[in-house]
Design goal:
Number of helices: 14
Strand content: under 5%
Membrane topology: Multi-pass membrane protein
Oligomer: single chain
Keywords: Cell membrane, Membrane, Transmembrane, Transmembrane helix, Transport
Helix content: over 70%
Distance between the termini: 78 Å
Shape: extended
Pfam family, one: AI-2E_transport
Family: Belongs to the autoinducer-2 exporter (AI-2E) (TC 2.A.86) family.
Number of strands: 0
Largest sheet: none
Radius of gyration: 40 Å
Subcellular location: Cell membrane
Length: about 475
């Protein structure tokens, strides 16, 4: 947080320096333009040629001769010369315009350079705005993640609330019953995982000890050909690293307590927000619409329901895909004899909420347990093969069939979005990255179609008006008067 504040201050100071330097350059440019010694003067207005001077003694014959010569001469008499108009850009600068110089300094800059410069400062301004937005979100991380998690949970439970409302159940009872049912389901899943781990922990510990001994024997007698002394030195280095970093471990424990408090606060805030989304979601949306400008309300009023439909379809599809992944991987590791198959399946189910990579990352826990408890790499390799096979089925069959219509985002965009969300917000950012991308894609597509439809209607109305004007112009005057009389 402190680094982010320093970076924000540095960016603001840099932008201020750039603005001051630009102001100084502009003042010097205007001063140079006002006092340019190389500026050529504009020729003064030429006076019209006066009468040819003739002797006073005999004026009539001389005047007649001049008039005859002018009329018979093929060369036209030069008219009064006028100075070129001074451009408006130079009128207020106190300088005269030279015909060989552009009217304004901006016209002297090549068009491509002007476009590149204007695009650059707009991109810089947009980047600064995004940085400020992310900085504020990072400061309010608990609130932001609680609201996003509440939206995902509400999108999963809202169809049940709507079904109860359609069958005559009051809104408060429907929202409260579905919310408590979902809360009870989450509690049962957590209790099941804790119960399975505590019940199987002694057996897993004994298997881990035997597996470590067999793994040590394999490292000595296997293809690695390590010695007992090398293995002992490696174990001593690990022990020394643990003992020398006691202070860091203590600080990690303190940080862990702080994280536990923040997690509890986020959970309570998430439950509270989820209930009100289920109970009064429509009024909350209408209140948010009233905060928008009047010109944007109608567009967002149409985009909101479409975004909610996309989010609901995404959450329900993700739950279905995660359940299939957990069942398939759980059956595979159970058949391979890996302990804690059911708790590992639940962990994989939770990890699969991050599309394409979540189940694979959480499945590596099963690979490590297989490596430690089975005492050799072969079972761990088989578990890894099961994970890769299930991931291939998910990416090529389950994702296109179940989530294809809801998300409509290329797999590369999904992977890059998950990576960016993980860098910005950790695990929570990776979870909410893909639904955020899907909802943004839906909203942008709806607004683009709305603008295209509005432009088409405007074009049709203009064409009809022009056709009516042409018909009225070509219609005879008598027919127009008769039509007016009718």
């Amino acid at each position: 947080m402190a680094r982010g504040g320093k970076a924000f201050k540095a960016v603001a100071k840099g932008m201020a320096l750039v603005a001051s330097a630009a102001a100084v350059i502009e003042r010097r440019r205007r001063a140079a333009m006002a006092a340019d010694p190389h500026e050529l003067p504009v020729p003064a207005l030429a006076e019209a040629p006066g009468p040819v001077p003739v002797p006073r003694a005999d004026p009539a014959p001389a005047a007649q001769a001049v008039t005859t010569a002018v009329e018979e001469s093929p060369v036209p008499v030069p008219a009064t010369t006028t100075a070129p108009p001074v451009p408006a850009a130079h009128a207020g600068l106190g300088r005269e315009h030279h015909p060989g110089r552009p009217a304004t300094p901006a016209e002297a800059v090549p068009w491509g350079l002007r476009v590149a410069a204007e695009s650059t400062w707009r991109l810089l301004l947009l980047g600064a705005a995004l940085y400020v937005l992310f900085y504020v979100v990072d400061m309010l991380r608990l609130v932001a993640f609680s609201v996003l998690a509440s939206l995902l949970i509400a999108a999963l439970l809202e169809p049940s609330v709507s079904w109860l409302r359609r069958h005559g159940v009051p809104r408060s009872l429907a929202a409260g019953g579905v919310f408590l049912s979902g809360l009870a389901g989450i509690g049962l899943v957590g209790w099941f995982v804790v119960w399975q781990v505590s019940a199987n922990l002694p057996g897993v510990t004994n298997q881990a000890k035997d597996g470590i001994n067999r793994l040590r024997d394999w490292m000595v007698t296997g293809p690695l050909h390590l010695t007992q002394q090398q293995i002992k030195d490696f174990a001593d280095q690990i022990t020394k690293a643990i003992t020398t970093n006691t202070d860091q471990l203590t600080s990690v424990s303190i940080t862990g307590a702080q994280i536990a408090v923040e997690t509890l606060t986020a959970l309570l805030m998430t439950f509270f927000t989820t209930f009100f989304f289920l109970y009064d979601g429509a009024r909350i949306w209408n209140w948010a619409l009233r905060g928008l400008p009047r010109q944007s309300r109608f567009a967002m009023a149409g985009a909101g329901p479409k975004a909610w439909t996309t989010l609901t379809a995404y959450v329900r599809g993700t739950v279905c895909v995660a359940f299939i992944d957990a069942v398939c991987i759980g059956i595979g590791i159970d058949l391979l004899g890996v302990p804690l198959a059911m708790p590992l399946a639940v962990i994989i189910f939770l990890g699969a909420f991050v599309p394409l990579v979540g189940a694979l990352v959480t499945g590596t826990i099963a690979v490590l347990i297989a490596l430690v408890t089975q005492g050799g790499p072969w079972t761990a390799l088989m578990v890894l093969v099961v994970l890769i096979a299930v991931m291939q089925v998910e990416s090529h069959i389950l994702q296109p069939l179940i989530l294809g219509r809801a998300v409509r985002v290329h797999p590369l965009g999904v992977v890059l979005g998950v990576a960016a969300g993980g860098i910005i917000g950790g695990i929570g950012g990776a979870v909410v990255a893909v639904p955020l991308i899907a909802v943004t894609n839906t909203v942008v597509a709806h607004l683009r179609r709305r603008n295209e439809a509005g432009q088409a209607v405007f074009t049709a109305l203009e064409a009809a008006r022009e056709a009516a004007e042409r018909t009225a112009a070509t219609q005879p005057a008598g027919a127009q008067s008769a039509a007016a009389t009718d």
